[in-house]
Amino acid sequence: MGDDMKDMTSLGLKVEAGRLWILDQTRLPDEECWVEGGDPAAMVGHIQRLAVRGAPLIGVAAALSLACFAASGASESRLRSACAALRGARPTAVNLMAAMDRMKAALDAGASSQDLVREAEAIFEADVELCEAMASRGAALIGPGESALTHCNAGALATAGIGTALGVIRRAFELGRLRHVFVDETRPLLQGARLTAWELSRLGIPHTLITDSMAAILLREGRVQRVLVGADRVAANGDFANKVGTYGLAVQALHHGVPFHPVAPWTTVDLDCPDGASIPIEERRAEEVRGYGGRLWAPEACPVFNPSFDVTPASLVTSLVLDRAVLTGAQLRE
Predict the structure, then answer these.
(1) 206-228 residues labelled b (16+ CB within 10 A) or e (exposed)
(2) Residue 294 — pLDDT band, cuts 50, 70, 90?
(3) Is the predicted pLDDT of residue 1 greater than 70, yes or no?
(4) Number of helices and strands (H, E) in the chain?
(5) What pTM value is reported for the model?
(6) Alpha carbon separation from 268 to 18, 201, 327 (Å, rounded)
(7) Which of these is catalytic: 232, 239, 270, 310?
(8) Active site includes 232?
(9) What stretch of H or E contains 292?
(10) Pairing mode of beta strands 233-235, 34-36
């Protein structure tokens, strides 16, 4: 399968000898388990159960999965069907749609399996470069000795490179500017506790884990100088969707006068989406809220509201850090 595909490695994804592997993020931090992703039907499942997650990474993973399928000899009709299934695996993160539209455009142009492999490799390599550009632009905003607060996981586990918001944090720490990171636990699936804390520990960056409801205390006490978060889709007017809880954090940051920055690559910007109200929000299973890891802490039939994302209006954004530029809130609202 895919013998001519280049070997590539990121924290959460790797290609070795033409086979695609993903790090099953549902099993972190207890176990580092790699599962195959070269079959698009399997990859759809991996994406939906959040074994592979993060807006940029699911786009990269889906493209590489389709490329492996092409290299295995799949017919054009099967490739088109797989492309559509992958594109629809999750509705909010626009990077997935952008990557699949790019692969479909190659198919429409008569691409060979080799061409599809090269296109997927280019999507991977571009994301690495986008992360570096965001890290450089974002780190320049951070003053010496600052502490930051982040939500969910926007690091190397969510991208092919060093991350979006966590990439900025990493670069600022390496430059000696950032001294500490507070990590929102991120209910209900604990991406901050399980994934971001794991990444920061690996990087040797000082950090403290908090529950989401503790953030306002830190902001009020002046223990946080900046909030950095990722994004799954940025609308044309600067509104953006991110992991649920981000909107509340933005409101709290504004109230306490703390700068608030979403960090995202251009592939997350959807110029065809006019505003936040037009962003589709994925609702997930009730079981995710009633308990975790097989343990229930709510009545089994308890009604649940479980949106995976919320939308933060551009009016709450200090600046949006892109790979191409840093856009102030005023510029977003123009």
Answers:
(1) ebebbebeebbebbeeeebbbbb
(2) confident
(3) no
(4) 12, 17
(5) 0.93
(6) 28, 27, 15
(7) 232
(8) yes
(9) strand 291-292
(10) unpaired
Alpha helices in the chain (DSSP H): 40-48, 55-71, 76-87, 94-108, 113-139, 165-174, 191, 197-203, 215-220, 246-255, 287-290, 329-333
Beta bridge partners of 310: 242
Instruction: List pLDDT tens digits, range 220-235.
Output: 999 999 999 999 999 9
Q: How far apart are the first and last CA of the chain?
A: 49
Q: How confident is the model at residue 209 (pLDDT cuts 50, 70, 90)?
A: very high
Tokens linked to 9 = 């490695």
Cα separations (Å) of 328 from 94, 150, 297, 333? 22, 19, 42, 9
Helices 55-71 and 40-48 sit at what angle, rounded to 10 degrees? Answer: 170
How confident is residue 2, by pLDDT bands cut at 50, 70 and 90? very low
User: What span, in angstroms and rounded, lies between the C-alpha atoms of 21 and 35?
Assistant: 5
Residue tagged 């840093």 (tokens): 326
Across the strands, what pairs with 19? 16
